[in-house]
Amino acid sequence: MTRKTEKRPNTVLRRLREQERHQTRDEFADSMAKAARELGENCACNWRYVAHLEDGTIAMPGPAYRRILERTTGRPFADLGWSAPVVAEPRHEPTSEDHGRTAPDGSPPNAARMLAELLPADEGALTPAQGGSRRQVGAGAVLDLSGRVHGLRLADDFLSGGDLIAPAFRELRQAIRLYRESSHSDEVGRALLAAIGELAQIAGWIASDAGQNAQAEKAYRLGISAARAAGDGTLTGNLIGSLSYHYANTQRPADAVTLAKAAVGTTGAAAPPRARALTHDRAAWAYTKAGNAQEAMKALGAAEAALTEHTDGVDEPGYLYWVNSGELQVMEARAYTELRRPLRAVPLLTDVLSRYDVTHAREMALYLSWLAEAYVHANEPEQAAATAERMITLSADIASERTSERARVVLRNLQTIGEVPEVRQVLHDHGHLLRA
After folding, report:
1. Sign of CA dihedral 194, 195, 196, 201
2. Sign of CA dihedral 394, 398, 401, 402
3. Confidence class for position 58, pLDDT limits 50, 70, 90
4. What distance in Å separates the CA atoms of residue 277 and residue 241, rounded to the nearest whole number?
5. Runs of H (alpha helix) within 340-380
6. C or N terminus of the chain, fewer CB within 10 Å?
7. Does residue 263 have a pLDDT over 70?
8. pLDDT of 83 above 80
9. Within 13 A of 364's CA, how many CA atoms are on the CB side?
10. What is the DSSP letter of 232?
């Protein structure tokens, strides 16, 4: 998860708009909207988006918006003031491996049936216990539980799955017991269910990071049931999206796409902007892992468009605190890396890493792994070796299966260019990780 990074205002774009085009932000947005229509791009272009571009809230526009800006200004994107220009590269053409895995729209066959199979059918684990005396609980119990949930989220910023899995699931078991064995009003009951849903989401994330995939899936399913019972569509969409992301990372891309579509629909247009951005972002990854580059790029554009509607101080769930333009930039770079478009991935990752908070070691290591892989695909072996060495050293003491697996992916990629001395050295020093 990407954390808060320093904004870098784009004075070049602002000067071009004000001094050369003599346009207000509204007028410039209208010009962008016209360019979008000419290009056939379904992108939101308004004064707020222009403001976010100029003040640095959006660190790097997405691919559709880059094309729109080029059409609007008549200049190549590299001349528009961003510090990490994107270099043109050949368009990815589908291979034989891209066919047969999903339907033309990116979804598996019989999607409705599969969706029914993938989502929980009942809330048995949350059924109130029968008999016995019950203690009355009120809003204070909800506040206490919500505080502990958010404490786990903040702990996850600095600690890894192996460190947190035991306390996370202990909290989840205690929260379920509190709901099932206490007496409470309907309002308090719904609030407890929502808190359980949030707790299940972070517990699932932690379990996945610890390499406990079955436990992660179980937690996400429980969370979906709790969020549904609470009547919280935004939270339900977040949990379905979390399970989609989990499937995308565990070799179930078709299921991931099915759930990603369900997450977008469940979250809905009325949800807070950052909630919508997050579900589209996860959908982009599902499409990427399914080999559907076109839908992945559309989802990234939709995520960026949703994020432009966010303003500080709006009422939104606390679990969205980490969603920002840097997070979307990382996902875009990961998608480009996975789709073998390294010339687009490298500048994005280099830009993010130059501004990233180094105290978040796990995320730093993960992002370095994508950069190392992109360097391999770009045929830059010395850069790949140096980045891989930094990533592996940084993650040596992190109890995260995510970083361990990413280190193995990087080393396997390095084996394809192992004749370079710097690469041979990294493989010699760390090749044992492939046998771990």
Report:
1. positive
2. negative
3. confident
4. 11
5. 342-355, 361-377
6. C
7. yes
8. no
9. 21
10. -
CB under 8 Å to 209, separation ≥6 — which residues?
156, 160, 161, 162, 362, 400, 401, 402
Cα–Cα–Cα angle for 276, 331, 311, rounded to 5 degrees: 40
Strands 135-136 and 182-183: parallel
**What is residue 436's predicted lDDT score, i.e. its pLDDT?**
67
361, 358, 351: which is closest to 328 by C-alpha?
351
Strand extents, DSSP E, 181-337 = 182-183
Q: Which of 325, 335, 270, 336 is nearest to 303 (CA)?
A: 325
Across all residues in the chain, what is the average pLDDT? Answer: 86
Q: Could you give the CA distance from residue 367 to residue 380 in angstroms, rounded to a whole number?
A: 17
Residue 336 near residue 317, CB atoms below 8 Å:
no
pLDDT at 98 over 60: no
pLDDT of residue 282: 97
Query: Which tens digits make up the pLDDT trace of 290-332?
Result: 999 999 999 999 999 999 999 887 889 999 999 999 889 999 9
How buried is 100 (Cβ within 10 angstroms: 0-12 exposed, 13-18 middle, 19+ buried)?
exposed
Calpha distance 217→282 (Å, rounded):
16
Give the three-state DSSP class for 104: coil
CA distance to 189, 256, 267, 275, 297, per residue, from 270 (Å): 24, 23, 8, 10, 23
Residues recorded for the chain: 436
Residue keyed to tokens 């904004």: 7
> pLDDT tens digits, residue range 394-408?
998 899 999 999 999
Helix (H) or strand (E) holding 316: none
Six token digits for residue 29: 């947005």
DSSP H helical ranges for 122-182:
139-156, 161-181
Q: Look up residue 165 and give its two tokens.
A: 């899995």
∠ at Cα 341 (259, 351), nearest 5°?
A: 90
User: pLDDT tens digit string along 368-385?
Assistant: 999 999 999 999 999 999
Position 352, amino acid = V
Is residue 133 left, alpha or beta, with left meaning phi > 0 and alpha meaning psi from -120 to 50?
Answer: beta
Half-sphere exposure of 134 (CA within 13 A, CB side): 16
Q: What's the predicted TM-score (pTM) here? A: 0.76
For residue 118, pLDDT over 80 is answered with no
Residue type, 231: G
Contact 320, 303 (CB under 8 A): no
